[in-house]
Amino acid sequence: MYKIVVERECGCFKRSDMNAYNEVESKDEALVKSLEMKDAMNNEFCKKHNFEVQEDGDTFKIVMV
Hints:
Elements: E1 2-6, H1 11-15, E2 21-24, H2 27-44, E3 51-56, E4 59-64
Parallel strand pairs: 1-4
Antiparallel strand pairs: 1-2, 3-4
């Protein structure tokens, strides 16, 4: 299993319908889903924060930069 984790939840994230922790079967699925989440967070949230994806073993972290 591969994990997708949002490290720091800003207020906009907390008000969204996204989950801060997800598990998927494949690495490719985890990468695609984490990139989709990151893009949505960067394009649809309040724009006070920027997010990027970092791979750490079997975990894809969405971090605030």
